[in-house]
Protein backbone atom coordinates (compact mmCIF):
# COMPACT_ATOMS: atom_id res chain seq x y z
CA UNK A 1 0.00 0.00 0.00
CA UNK A 2 1.28 3.46 -0.88
CA UNK A 3 2.30 5.81 1.94
CA UNK A 4 -0.62 8.15 1.20
CA UNK A 5 -3.03 5.57 2.62
CA UNK A 6 -0.77 4.00 5.25
CA UNK A 7 -0.54 4.61 8.98
CA UNK A 8 2.75 3.82 10.71
CA UNK A 9 1.29 1.43 13.30
CA UNK A 10 -0.04 -0.96 10.68
CA UNK A 11 2.78 -0.37 8.23
CA UNK A 12 5.36 -1.38 10.87
CA UNK A 13 3.72 -4.80 11.27
CA UNK A 14 4.40 -5.59 7.61
CA UNK A 15 7.85 -4.04 7.49
CA UNK A 16 10.59 -6.45 6.37
CA UNK A 17 12.54 -5.82 9.57
CA UNK A 18 9.57 -6.87 11.69
CA UNK A 19 8.90 -9.92 9.51
CA UNK A 20 12.44 -11.24 9.87
CA UNK A 21 12.40 -10.41 13.59
CA UNK A 22 9.31 -12.58 13.95
CA UNK A 23 11.01 -15.36 11.98
CA UNK A 24 13.89 -15.21 14.45
CA UNK A 25 11.45 -15.23 17.36
CA UNK A 26 9.77 -18.37 15.98
CA UNK A 27 13.08 -20.14 15.35
CA UNK A 28 14.36 -19.28 18.82
CA UNK A 29 11.12 -20.43 20.47
CA UNK A 30 11.38 -23.75 18.61
CA UNK A 31 15.01 -24.06 19.71
CA UNK A 32 14.04 -23.41 23.33
CA UNK A 33 11.51 -26.22 23.13
CA UNK A 34 14.12 -28.53 21.64
CA UNK A 35 16.45 -27.73 24.51
CA UNK A 36 13.76 -28.59 27.04
CA UNK A 37 13.17 -31.88 25.24
CA UNK A 38 16.96 -32.52 25.14
CA UNK A 39 16.97 -32.65 21.35
CA UNK A 40 19.70 -30.02 21.14
CA UNK A 41 22.32 -28.96 23.73
CA UNK A 42 21.27 -26.67 26.58
CA UNK A 43 22.32 -23.03 26.34
CA UNK A 44 22.39 -22.95 22.53
CA UNK A 45 19.37 -20.69 22.21
CA UNK A 46 20.78 -18.16 24.64
CA UNK A 47 24.07 -18.02 22.71
CA UNK A 48 22.31 -17.57 19.35
CA UNK A 49 19.97 -14.92 20.75
CA UNK A 50 22.91 -12.90 22.08
CA UNK A 51 24.66 -12.81 18.70
CA UNK A 52 21.86 -12.98 16.14
CA UNK A 53 20.98 -9.76 14.37
CA UNK A 54 18.45 -9.17 11.62
CA UNK A 55 20.15 -7.54 8.62
CA UNK A 56 17.50 -6.97 5.95
CA UNK A 57 19.91 -5.92 3.19
CA UNK A 58 22.18 -8.89 3.81
CA UNK A 59 19.24 -11.31 3.69
CA UNK A 60 18.06 -9.79 0.43
CA UNK A 61 21.52 -10.01 -1.11
CA UNK A 62 21.85 -13.68 -0.18
CA UNK A 63 18.37 -14.40 -1.54
CA UNK A 64 19.40 -13.04 -4.94
CA UNK A 65 21.74 -16.02 -5.24
CA UNK A 66 19.95 -18.82 -3.36
CA UNK A 67 16.44 -17.88 -4.56
CA UNK A 68 14.96 -18.91 -1.20
CA UNK A 69 13.99 -16.39 1.47
CA UNK A 70 14.11 -18.67 4.53
CA UNK A 71 17.49 -20.13 3.55
CA UNK A 72 18.79 -16.60 2.98
CA UNK A 73 17.52 -15.63 6.43
CA UNK A 74 19.11 -18.64 8.16
CA UNK A 75 22.39 -18.05 6.32
CA UNK A 76 22.45 -14.43 7.43
CA UNK A 77 21.77 -15.40 11.05
CA UNK A 78 24.53 -18.03 10.94
CA UNK A 79 27.01 -15.39 9.77
CA UNK A 80 26.31 -13.41 12.92
CA UNK A 81 25.72 -16.17 15.46
CA UNK A 82 28.21 -18.79 14.32
CA UNK A 83 28.21 -22.61 14.42
CA UNK A 84 25.46 -22.91 17.06
CA UNK A 85 22.93 -21.89 14.42
CA UNK A 86 23.17 -25.42 13.00
CA UNK A 87 20.61 -26.33 15.64
CA UNK A 88 18.07 -23.80 14.32
CA UNK A 89 15.27 -25.02 12.09
CA UNK A 90 15.91 -28.65 13.07
CA UNK A 91 13.20 -30.88 11.54
CA UNK A 92 11.25 -27.83 10.38
CA UNK A 93 10.17 -26.70 6.92
CA UNK A 94 10.07 -23.16 5.58
CA UNK A 95 6.28 -22.96 5.81
CA UNK A 96 6.45 -23.62 9.54
CA UNK A 97 8.13 -20.24 9.85
CA UNK A 98 6.34 -18.45 7.03
CA UNK A 99 2.80 -19.46 7.97
CA UNK A 100 3.23 -18.94 11.69
CA UNK A 101 4.69 -15.51 11.03
CA UNK A 102 1.94 -14.60 8.54
CA UNK A 103 -0.74 -15.56 11.01
CA UNK A 104 0.99 -13.52 13.70
CA UNK A 105 1.02 -10.47 11.42
CA UNK A 106 -2.65 -10.93 10.56
CA UNK A 107 -3.46 -11.30 14.27
CA UNK A 108 -1.49 -8.15 15.16
CA UNK A 109 -3.16 -6.24 12.34
CA UNK A 110 -6.58 -7.50 13.36
CA UNK A 111 -6.10 -6.33 16.94
CA UNK A 112 -5.40 -2.79 15.72
CA UNK A 113 -8.45 -2.96 13.46
CA UNK A 114 -10.54 -3.97 16.50
CA UNK A 115 -9.33 -0.82 18.30
CA UNK A 116 -10.33 1.24 15.26
CA UNK A 117 -13.77 -0.36 15.20
CA UNK A 118 -14.26 0.36 18.90
CA UNK A 119 -13.47 4.03 18.33
CA UNK A 120 -15.83 4.25 15.35
CA UNK A 121 -18.62 2.43 17.19
CA UNK A 122 -18.27 4.89 20.07
CA UNK A 123 -18.49 7.90 17.70
CA UNK A 124 -21.56 6.47 15.96
CA UNK A 125 -23.25 5.86 19.30
CA UNK A 126 -22.53 9.42 20.47
CA UNK A 127 -23.87 11.01 17.28
CA UNK A 128 -26.92 8.73 17.13
CA UNK A 129 -27.89 9.64 20.72
CA UNK A 130 -27.35 13.33 20.03
CA UNK A 131 -29.72 13.17 17.07
CA UNK A 132 -32.12 10.60 18.48
CA UNK A 133 -35.13 12.81 17.74
CA UNK A 134 -33.72 14.91 14.88
CA UNK A 135 -36.42 14.46 12.23
CA UNK A 136 -35.48 13.66 8.65
CA UNK A 137 -37.11 11.91 5.75
CA UNK A 138 -36.55 8.22 5.21
CA UNK A 139 -35.96 7.29 1.59
CA UNK A 140 -36.57 4.08 -0.30
CA UNK A 141 -35.39 3.81 -3.92
CA UNK A 142 -34.05 7.35 -3.36
CA UNK A 143 -37.65 8.61 -3.03
CA UNK A 144 -39.20 10.19 0.06
CA UNK A 145 -40.91 7.46 2.10
CA UNK A 146 -41.80 8.28 5.73
CA UNK A 147 -40.16 10.29 8.52
CA UNK A 148 -37.37 8.80 10.58
CA UNK A 149 -34.71 10.47 12.72
CA UNK A 150 -31.09 11.05 11.87
CA UNK A 151 -30.17 9.31 15.10
CA UNK A 152 -32.03 6.22 13.95
CA UNK A 153 -30.20 6.34 10.62
CA UNK A 154 -26.83 6.37 12.45
CA UNK A 155 -27.99 3.67 14.86
CA UNK A 156 -28.28 1.19 11.98
CA UNK A 157 -24.58 1.73 11.27
CA UNK A 158 -23.74 1.48 14.97
CA UNK A 159 -25.24 -2.02 15.08
CA UNK A 160 -23.70 -2.99 11.74
CA UNK A 161 -20.20 -2.12 12.90
CA UNK A 162 -20.81 -3.96 16.16
CA UNK A 163 -21.55 -7.05 14.08
CA UNK A 164 -18.41 -6.36 12.06
CA UNK A 165 -16.39 -6.25 15.25
CA UNK A 166 -17.73 -9.66 16.31
CA UNK A 167 -16.99 -11.07 12.85
CA UNK A 168 -13.42 -9.79 13.02
CA UNK A 169 -12.90 -11.14 16.55
CA UNK A 170 -14.01 -14.56 15.31
CA UNK A 171 -11.72 -14.29 12.29
CA UNK A 172 -8.74 -13.33 14.47
CA UNK A 173 -9.37 -16.43 16.61
CA UNK A 174 -9.60 -18.49 13.43
CA UNK A 175 -6.29 -17.18 12.09
CA UNK A 176 -4.36 -17.40 15.36
CA UNK A 177 -2.79 -20.80 14.76
CA UNK A 178 0.77 -22.04 14.61
CA UNK A 179 2.26 -24.91 12.60
CA UNK A 180 5.61 -26.47 13.43
CA UNK A 181 4.91 -29.86 11.86
CA UNK A 182 7.62 -30.45 9.27
CA UNK A 183 7.78 -31.12 5.56
CA UNK A 184 4.28 -32.56 5.02
CA UNK A 185 2.71 -32.01 8.42
CA UNK A 186 3.41 -35.47 9.84
CA UNK A 187 5.79 -34.44 12.65
CA UNK A 188 8.20 -37.07 11.30
CA UNK A 189 11.22 -34.93 12.08
CA UNK A 190 9.90 -32.57 14.72
CA UNK A 191 8.19 -33.35 18.03
CA UNK A 192 4.56 -32.05 18.32
CA UNK A 193 5.49 -30.71 21.75
CA UNK A 194 7.72 -28.16 20.02
CA UNK A 195 4.71 -26.81 18.14
CA UNK A 196 2.71 -26.61 21.37
CA UNK A 197 5.53 -24.70 23.08
CA UNK A 198 5.95 -22.21 20.21
CA UNK A 199 2.20 -21.67 19.99
CA UNK A 200 1.93 -20.92 23.71
CA UNK A 201 4.93 -18.59 23.62
CA UNK A 202 3.49 -16.64 20.66
CA UNK A 203 -0.07 -16.67 22.10
CA UNK A 204 -1.35 -18.80 19.25
CA UNK A 205 -3.03 -22.24 19.09
CA UNK A 206 -1.45 -25.30 17.51
CA UNK A 207 -2.91 -26.04 14.10
CA UNK A 208 -4.81 -29.33 14.64
CA UNK A 209 -3.80 -30.69 11.25
CA UNK A 210 -1.61 -29.07 8.64
CA UNK A 211 -0.09 -30.36 5.40
CA UNK A 212 3.00 -28.40 4.65
CA UNK A 213 0.94 -25.31 5.30
CA UNK A 214 -1.86 -24.04 7.51
CA UNK A 215 -5.19 -24.53 5.68
CA UNK A 216 -6.17 -21.41 3.71
CA UNK A 217 -9.87 -21.47 4.56
CA UNK A 218 -8.83 -19.70 7.75
CA UNK A 219 -7.29 -16.88 5.74
CA UNK A 220 -10.26 -16.75 3.39
CA UNK A 221 -12.56 -16.11 6.35
CA UNK A 222 -10.27 -13.37 7.63
CA UNK A 223 -10.08 -11.50 4.32
CA UNK A 224 -13.79 -12.02 3.64
CA UNK A 225 -14.49 -10.32 6.96
CA UNK A 226 -12.29 -7.39 5.97
CA UNK A 227 -14.29 -7.21 2.73
CA UNK A 228 -17.58 -7.08 4.65
CA UNK A 229 -16.24 -4.30 6.86
CA UNK A 230 -15.18 -2.41 3.74
CA UNK A 231 -18.72 -2.71 2.35
CA UNK A 232 -20.11 -1.29 5.60
CA UNK A 233 -17.67 1.60 5.30
CA UNK A 234 -18.80 2.24 1.74
CA UNK A 235 -22.49 2.07 2.72
CA UNK A 236 -21.98 4.79 5.34
CA UNK A 237 -19.73 6.82 3.03
CA UNK A 238 -22.32 6.63 0.24
CA UNK A 239 -25.05 7.79 2.62
CA UNK A 240 -23.02 10.86 3.57
CA UNK A 241 -22.18 11.59 -0.06
CA UNK A 242 -25.85 11.53 -1.02
CA UNK A 243 -26.85 13.70 1.93
CA UNK A 244 -24.14 16.25 1.09
CA UNK A 245 -25.44 16.87 -2.44
CA UNK A 246 -26.34 20.53 -2.96
CA UNK A 247 -30.02 19.74 -3.49
CA UNK A 248 -30.14 17.77 -0.22
CA UNK A 249 -27.43 19.29 2.03
CA UNK A 250 -28.54 17.60 5.24
CA UNK A 251 -24.96 16.82 6.29
CA UNK A 252 -21.50 17.93 5.23
CA UNK A 253 -17.98 16.66 5.77
CA UNK A 254 -15.89 18.97 7.94
CA UNK A 255 -14.03 21.53 5.86
CA UNK A 256 -10.85 23.18 7.10
CA UNK A 257 -10.43 26.95 7.11
CA UNK A 258 -7.56 26.70 4.62
CA UNK A 259 -9.01 23.77 2.65
CA UNK A 260 -9.74 24.14 -1.07
CA UNK A 261 -12.65 22.38 -2.78
CA UNK A 262 -11.87 22.80 -6.44
CA UNK A 263 -8.96 24.08 -8.51
CA UNK A 264 -11.40 25.90 -10.79
CA UNK A 265 -14.47 26.69 -8.63
CA UNK A 266 -13.74 28.39 -5.30
CA UNK A 267 -17.30 27.88 -4.01
CA UNK A 268 -17.14 24.11 -3.85
CA UNK A 269 -16.99 21.83 -0.81
CA UNK A 270 -16.62 18.34 -2.20
CA UNK A 271 -17.19 15.12 -0.18
CA UNK A 272 -13.64 13.99 -0.92
CA UNK A 273 -13.15 11.96 2.27
CA UNK A 274 -16.18 9.75 1.76
CA UNK A 275 -15.43 9.46 -1.96
CA UNK A 276 -11.95 8.29 -1.00
CA UNK A 277 -13.47 5.78 1.43
CA UNK A 278 -15.65 4.44 -1.37
CA UNK A 279 -12.56 3.84 -3.50
CA UNK A 280 -10.57 2.20 -0.71
CA UNK A 281 -13.52 -0.07 0.06
CA UNK A 282 -13.58 -1.28 -3.53
CA UNK A 283 -9.85 -1.99 -3.34
CA UNK A 284 -10.20 -3.95 -0.11
CA UNK A 285 -13.07 -6.05 -1.46
CA UNK A 286 -11.09 -6.85 -4.59
CA UNK A 287 -8.65 -8.82 -2.41
CA UNK A 288 -11.33 -11.17 -1.10
CA UNK A 289 -11.55 -13.26 -4.29
CA UNK A 290 -7.80 -14.07 -4.40
CA UNK A 291 -8.02 -15.12 -0.73
CA UNK A 292 -10.88 -17.48 -1.56
CA UNK A 293 -8.98 -18.89 -4.52
CA UNK A 294 -5.96 -19.55 -2.30
CA UNK A 295 -7.91 -22.28 -0.53
CA UNK A 296 -7.34 -24.58 -3.50
CA UNK A 297 -3.71 -25.73 -3.62
CA UNK A 298 -2.06 -28.86 -5.07
CA UNK A 299 -1.80 -31.84 -2.72
CA UNK A 300 0.06 -30.89 0.45
CA UNK A 301 1.17 -27.53 -0.90
CA UNK A 302 2.21 -25.41 -3.83
CA UNK A 303 3.24 -21.75 -3.79
CA UNK A 304 0.51 -20.27 -6.00
CA UNK A 305 -0.86 -18.57 -2.88
CA UNK A 306 2.45 -17.02 -1.86
CA UNK A 307 2.63 -14.01 -4.18
CA UNK A 308 -1.03 -13.31 -3.49
CA UNK A 309 -0.59 -13.24 0.27
CA UNK A 310 2.57 -11.14 0.15
CA UNK A 311 0.39 -8.44 -1.44
CA UNK A 312 -3.06 -8.79 0.10
CA UNK A 313 -1.80 -9.22 3.67
CA UNK A 314 -0.26 -5.76 4.02
CA UNK A 315 -2.36 -3.97 1.41
CA UNK A 316 -5.76 -5.04 2.75
CA UNK A 317 -5.07 -4.54 6.44
CA UNK A 318 -3.25 -1.22 5.93
CA UNK A 319 -6.00 0.12 3.66
CA UNK A 320 -8.75 -0.92 6.09
CA UNK A 321 -6.88 0.59 9.03
CA UNK A 322 -6.61 3.89 7.18
CA UNK A 323 -10.26 3.76 6.10
CA UNK A 324 -11.60 3.11 9.60
CA UNK A 325 -9.58 5.95 11.09
CA UNK A 326 -10.70 8.31 8.33
CA UNK A 327 -14.34 7.29 8.67
CA UNK A 328 -14.23 7.92 12.40
CA UNK A 329 -12.88 11.44 11.77
CA UNK A 330 -15.73 12.04 9.31
CA UNK A 331 -18.42 10.87 11.76
CA UNK A 332 -16.93 12.64 14.78
CA UNK A 333 -16.66 15.97 12.92
CA UNK A 334 -19.71 15.68 10.66
CA UNK A 335 -21.66 18.91 10.10
CA UNK A 336 -25.34 18.10 10.56
CA UNK A 337 -28.16 20.46 9.53
CA UNK A 338 -31.47 19.67 11.31
CA UNK A 339 -33.25 22.69 9.78
CA UNK A 340 -32.42 21.51 6.27
CA UNK A 341 -33.60 18.02 7.20
CA UNK A 342 -36.92 19.47 8.29
CA UNK A 343 -37.18 21.61 5.16
CA UNK A 344 -36.56 18.54 2.96
CA UNK A 345 -39.08 16.61 5.02
CA UNK A 346 -41.75 19.14 4.06
CA UNK A 347 -40.93 19.31 0.34
CA UNK A 348 -43.75 16.92 -0.55
CA UNK A 349 -46.25 18.84 1.62
CA UNK A 350 -47.37 15.93 3.72
CA UNK A 351 -47.39 13.13 1.13
CA UNK A 352 -45.57 10.81 3.55
CA UNK A 353 -48.76 10.66 5.67
CA UNK A 354 -50.41 8.62 2.89
CA UNK A 355 -50.08 5.30 4.73
CA UNK A 356 -51.59 6.81 7.88
CA UNK A 357 -54.65 7.93 5.92
CA UNK A 358 -54.82 4.55 4.12
CA UNK A 359 -54.87 2.63 7.40
CA UNK A 360 -57.50 4.93 8.92
CA UNK A 361 -59.78 4.48 5.91
CA UNK A 362 -59.58 0.69 6.27
CA UNK A 363 -60.49 1.12 9.95
CA UNK A 364 -63.56 3.09 8.80
CA UNK A 365 -64.84 0.27 6.61
CA UNK A 366 -63.17 0.73 3.20
CA UNK A 367 -61.50 -2.30 1.62
CA UNK A 368 -57.76 -1.94 1.30
CA UNK A 369 -58.09 -1.67 -2.48
CA UNK A 370 -60.70 1.11 -2.18
CA UNK A 371 -58.67 3.01 0.40
CA UNK A 372 -55.45 2.67 -1.59
CA UNK A 373 -57.12 3.97 -4.76
CA UNK A 374 -58.57 7.01 -2.96
CA UNK A 375 -55.34 7.94 -1.23
CA UNK A 376 -53.20 7.39 -4.31
CA UNK A 377 -55.51 9.55 -6.45
CA UNK A 378 -55.19 12.44 -4.01
CA UNK A 379 -51.46 11.89 -3.56
CA UNK A 380 -50.84 12.04 -7.31
CA UNK A 381 -52.97 15.18 -7.61
CA UNK A 382 -51.04 16.82 -4.77
CA UNK A 383 -47.71 15.81 -6.32
CA UNK A 384 -48.68 17.04 -9.79
CA UNK A 385 -50.00 20.40 -8.58
CA UNK A 386 -47.37 20.86 -5.86
CA UNK A 387 -50.24 21.29 -3.45
CA UNK A 388 -50.99 20.29 0.12
CA UNK A 389 -51.77 16.60 0.55
CA UNK A 390 -53.82 17.41 3.62
CA UNK A 391 -55.91 19.93 1.67
CA UNK A 392 -56.51 17.42 -1.12
CA UNK A 393 -57.56 14.68 1.32
CA UNK A 394 -59.72 17.02 3.38
CA UNK A 395 -61.69 18.03 0.29
CA UNK A 396 -62.28 14.54 -1.04
CA UNK A 397 -66.02 13.85 -0.73
CA UNK A 398 -65.70 10.11 -0.19
CA UNK A 399 -63.05 10.55 2.47
CA UNK A 400 -64.94 13.33 4.24
CA UNK A 401 -67.87 10.95 4.72
CA UNK A 402 -65.70 8.77 6.95
CA UNK A 403 -63.05 11.04 8.45
CA UNK A 404 -63.65 14.53 9.84
CA UNK A 405 -61.20 17.38 9.25
CA UNK A 406 -60.33 17.44 12.96
CA UNK A 407 -59.56 13.75 12.88
CA UNK A 408 -57.46 14.21 9.75
CA UNK A 409 -55.42 16.88 11.50
CA UNK A 410 -54.59 14.37 14.24
CA UNK A 411 -53.40 11.90 11.61
CA UNK A 412 -50.91 14.41 10.19
CA UNK A 413 -48.61 14.24 13.20
CA UNK A 414 -44.83 13.73 13.22
CA UNK A 415 -44.96 12.22 16.71
CA UNK A 416 -46.77 9.22 15.25
CA UNK A 417 -43.59 8.29 13.37
CA UNK A 418 -41.24 8.75 16.31
CA UNK A 419 -43.28 7.19 19.11
CA UNK A 420 -41.34 3.88 19.00
CA UNK A 421 -37.89 5.38 18.53
CA UNK A 422 -37.02 4.91 22.19
CA UNK A 423 -37.88 1.22 22.01
CA UNK A 424 -35.51 0.74 19.08
CA UNK A 425 -32.69 2.61 20.83
CA UNK A 426 -33.15 0.62 24.04
CA UNK A 427 -33.10 -2.59 22.05
CA UNK A 428 -29.87 -1.62 20.28
CA UNK A 429 -28.01 -0.12 23.21
CA UNK A 430 -28.79 -2.67 25.90
CATH topology of the largest domain: Fumarase C, Chain A, domain 2
Residue stretches low in confidence (pLDDT < 50, at least 5 long) are none
Quaternary structure state of the chains depicted: single chain
Head-to-tail CA distance between termini: 39 Å
**What Rg, in angstroms, do the CA atoms define?**
30 Å
Number of helices: 20
CATH superfamily of the largest domain: Fumarase/aspartase (Central domain)
The largest beta-sheet arranges its strands as 1-2
As a percent range, the share of strand residues is under 5%
CATH class identity of the largest domain = Mainly Alpha
Give me the count of strands. 6
Topology as H/E string?
Answer: HHHHHHEEHEHEHEHHHEHHHHHHHH
What is the correct CATH architecture of the largest domain?
Answer: Up-down Bundle
Sheet with the most strands, sense and barrel status: 2 strands, antiparallel
Task: Furnish the topology, listing elements before pairings.
Blueprint: H1 8-13, H2 16-36, H3 44-51, H4 56-66, H5 69-81, H6 94-130, E1 135-140, E2 143-149, H7 150-175, E3 177-178, H8 192-201, E4 205-206, H9 217-244, E5 251-252, H10 272-286, H11 288-293, H12 306-332, E6 335-336, H13 338-345, H14 354-363, H15 368-385, H16 389-394, H17 397-400, H18 405-411, H19 415-418, H20 421-429
Parallel strand pairs: 3-4
Antiparallel strand pairs: 1-2, 5-6
Helix pairs in contact: 2-3, 2-6, 2-8, 4-5, 6-7, 6-12, 7-9, 9-10, 9-12, 10-12, 14-15
Amino acid sequence: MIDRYSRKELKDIWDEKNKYSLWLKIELAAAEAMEKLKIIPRGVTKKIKAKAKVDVKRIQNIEKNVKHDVIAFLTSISEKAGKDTRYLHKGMTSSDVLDTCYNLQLKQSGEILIKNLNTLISSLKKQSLKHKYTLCIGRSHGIHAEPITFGLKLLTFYKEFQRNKRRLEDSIKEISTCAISGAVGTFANVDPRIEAYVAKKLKLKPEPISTQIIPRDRHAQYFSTLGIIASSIERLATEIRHLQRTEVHEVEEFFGTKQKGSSAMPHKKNPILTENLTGLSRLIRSNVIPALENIVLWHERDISHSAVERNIGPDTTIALDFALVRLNDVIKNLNIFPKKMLANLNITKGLFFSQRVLLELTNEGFTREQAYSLVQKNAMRSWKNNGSFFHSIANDKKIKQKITVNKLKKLFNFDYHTKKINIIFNRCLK
